[in-house]
Amino acid sequence: MAVTWTRAWWRWTGGPTTRPVERVVRVDGRSRADEPDDERQAFGRWVRKRPRVDGGKRRGDGCGRRSLSPTWVLAVGGPQSAGRGGRVGGVGRDASRLAGLQRRLQGIAGGLAVYDEAPDNVSSSTYSSTPSLPGCRVAPGRRADAGLPLARVTSNRIDVEALAAMDGVGRFREVLPMLMDPVAFAEAFVSGDAAGGCRVPSRGMERHRATLRSCGVASDARSRPAFAMKAFTTPKKDGRTARLVLDARPLNDAMRRPPSMDLPRLRDFIAEVERHRFAMQCDGVSYFYQFPVDASISRYFGIGMKGCDMLLNVLCMGWSWAPCIAQRASNVLVRDLGLAWVDNFLVLGGTLDEAERNVAVFRKRAQAARVEVRAEGDDALWQVRSRFVCVGVEFDLAAETQRHRLDPAWAERWVDGSGMTAVLSGRATARQFAEVFGGAVWATDILAVPRCHFAALLSFAGRLGGRMVGAAAPVWDEVVDVPPSARRELGALRKIVRENPWVVGGVPEDTGSVLWTDASSRAWAALLEAEGRFVDGRQGVFAGPDADAHINLKEMLAFAEGVVRLCWAPGAQRCRIDNAAVVGAVAKGSSSSYAANRVLSRSLRVAGRRGIVLRPDWVPSGGQLADPYTRGTSLPRFPAQLPLPRSRATPFDLF
Question: Would you state the pLDDT for residue 646?
Fold first, then answer.
């Protein structure tokens, strides 16, 4: 088998074809005239070499250019390929991929194409690691969503000035200049230079040009954009239409990070909804595209296209500042009326009359700011309900005790999806694992399942994420081996999601006691306070591997001992801890440490069986009443009076 390499310009022209590849330049660099007829018939490998095409325009005018990227071209030859023309495949430049490529070449007959990696605009499923029959020609495939039309995009534009006038807090007015003030926009660049100059061509987007023009989302660029970036489409959840997204990473890297979105935490969102009995839900129609952008700012939101670039005239989906702007605008509309989750609006009420009054106020605000909304699913617009699905959560506010669970449709897709099957089999792509793990995080938050119970799954996800972040060019289609322990934990979570139990809301009654836990480098102590006195306590010395553990793990061990040995009454159990890492881990139900997750899982399982809900609070070390009992002081006879909090001298106490 003969393998030769050459540097060439290559562009795929379309779908599958049976005609031979145009033989212009041979891969080993020899001209066609130097090739004997018999050798040409036996080798039969030619590669089209295409120079950069300017389309008759000057390079700097932004129109008519087609930027073609250089690739490495591999050709495999041998006597078996005579008369078949062979196949040619493009692979990445990274030389480290050659080892894997050579392994795939072993045992493959001459004349077969070998694809090490699919191009970025081609679905990885198009390329198979199993060689096909010699002579079968494969053209690059298309994205799974490339044939979908763009979803209906509204031509409505929000009156951002009227919306800013309603902003009683001023959070939306802080970010409004990023849409309307070119000077403020330019000041957001880290380097201070907003000249740009980046251009990344899009593929297959030309057929959407008329649609983008007709709805006013984009227009043809009359001059070269400051940033011309790659656009692509992703399928919407209906599976019949696609959403336009701009890969704005070049622009995001050049600008400073946006401020907080003011997006509520999911648990706080659910708790607030369950404090009411009625709700009206609607969402913005093409919400991001309803925000107008000043003409002088739209030059930073360019779409690199064949023939002529385009400029987005609306808020760019893919720009790091866009979610912040959209969420803060939504918060203005629902202020004192309900909640907003980006483009989802939820108007709440404790009674039916209150809910209807709040809906009337929301309608006036939306009309004044010219915000176009629609009902979710088959519901009638402005309809007040007690049972509904919002942001992937099904709420039942009509029950005696308000409750929630996962959206059954979402749960079914996640449980029976192809990604889940691949991960549970042990070999899945990094992309499949990331999608499944993201669903696992979402499911555990909604179903109130502590993630520390899935320590192995969290540990593997952390290692994989660190490897992807540290890589110069992450390969998300790389196959990874999922360890058996992570698969077992994922299988257990899958069973819970398949059952999709209702989670009852509400705040449990306080137990009336306080658990104090602390640890030093060599000992731990846990004491239970009730009615102003210590009623019980335990202490011990770290031994074995625990003696050399990190102080955070020792604090977690002390907390676990206190929960298991001292907490028996059901209800909300207050805990006083002077270690912020432990407080955060207990509050969110997981830690970044595998060992800490194992310890926390044990304490939460015991608390769950006893009907206890842990409420951790941080206290300064000087106010930690259990501290003396970790430094040589023996436990008192119970019940015992509380010791006075220790005071620590500061430099100001010396004067």
Answer: 52
